[in-house]
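Notebook entry, structure prediction.
Reason for the run: the old model in the group folder had no record of what sequence produced it. Starting over properly, with the input documented here first.
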Amino acid sequence: ALHTYLDKEHMDKKSSPFNFEGWVDFFGEDGPQQENGYDCGVFVCQTMENLSRGVSLPFDFTQKNMAYLRRRMILEIANESLPLQRL
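New structure, fully documented this time:
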């Protein structure tokens, strides 16, 4: 999905396909999968948080957790703090 998006954006802006040479896909089948068109930001933030904390795949969040995680992210942003340990 990300490859398709980048390729389409590059084609739109630069009129040429995006060069993916040297890119390595990080996630395989065991990565969390977004099931709609509007939770991508929450998925990206949660994935980056897990990676930054050294959590191994498979991550423990799914599409079903998005409403809770979105509210938690809003609280963390409003309080200008992240917990030192994962919740």
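Summary: The chain is about 45% helix and 0% strand.
The old model has been moved to the deprecated folder.
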